[in-house]
Design brief:
Blueprint (H helix, E strand, L loop, with lengths): L4 H10 L6 H22 L30 H4 L6 E2 L2 E2 L7
Antiparallel strand pairs: 1-2
Amino acid sequence: MKITREQVEHVARLARLELTEAEKELFTGQLDAILAYVDKLNELDTSGIVPTAHAVPMENAFRDDVVTPSIGIENALANAPDRSESFFRVPKVIE
């Protein structure tokens, strides 16, 4: 076994979890199986594999940054439910 019951109890205590005896036993077995699988993956030769961030090739979808004129205050506030001069008026949220 790669992980002990005491280690599971320690992690549960750090996470502020209260586990039953059955859960401790269950999680000890599950975490041990996960660690065994990771060990099995570590046996693979990945020296020729290029690290990837995505499973499929992705390209930058951003448009060119071009300076354009502003839409103006009147257009920006055209559909505002409430306004005060050239500002949006919103309900007070601070008590």
